[in-house]
Amino acid sequence: MKRYEELAPLSREHNRALLLARNARRAAGTGDPRRIREAWEALACAFRDEMRAHFATEERLVLTLLTELGEHDLAERLWREHRAMARNIGDPALWTRDRLAVLADVLHEHVRVEERRVFPLVQRHGSPALLAALADHPDAGDAATERRSAD
Ligand SMILES: [Fe+2]
Ligand SMILES: [Fe+2]
């Protein structure tokens, strides 16, 4: 199915999240403490720059629609995964190799479910107002890159 233009900002962030997940999975596989630390730091940076706002947009617009459609289990699952990822990324005391491997898998599957199951539902059932609000989601990519190069 062709992706609506309105979902492009969230989909671009999904592509970056998949790269982060792959990097995290590789770092966990090496067992190298420095690479594991760097992967967690990259996740923390991405969380600050775009994932936090991405989760908020999805919760405000997408999960609300899922609930209206009666997709309670799916909405609950995505909401729970947002909370778990935020908790782990936000607390350096939890930055272990095992948790990194789990987080990489959770993030990867989370994005796949949203792209394959949730976005088609949004395209089919989302109102014009909802789609317009999703199109307004700020694409953090450019701003984040600028901020990092200014650091
Ligand atoms: Fe999500
Ligand atoms: Fe997402």
Describe the structure.
With 151 residues, this protein is mainly alpha-helical. The chain has one domain. Helices cover 83% and strands 0% of the residues. Helix 2 packs antiparallel against helix 3 and helix 3 runs antiparallel to helix 4. The longest helix is centred in the middle third of the chain and has 36 residues. The chain is elongated, with a radius of gyration of 16 Å. The mean pLDDT is 93. The structure holds fe (ii) ion (FE2) (2 copies).
Biggest β-sheet: count, sense, barrel? Answer: none
Strand content: under 5%
Task: Calculate the terminal CA-CA distance, rounded to whole Å.
Answer: 40 Å
Structural class: mainly alpha
Oligomer: single chain
The total of helices stands at 6
Helices and strands, in order, run as HHHHHH
Shape estimate: elongated
Short description:
This protein is an all-alpha fold and 151 residues long. It has 6 helices and no strands.
How does the SSE layout of this entry go?
Blueprint: H1 8-30, H2 33-68, H3 72-90, H4 97-125, H5 128-135, H6 140-150
Residues 55, 58, 78, 82, 110, 114 line the site of one fe (ii) ion.
Features:
0% strand; 6 helices; 151 residues; mainly alpha; binds fe (ii) ion
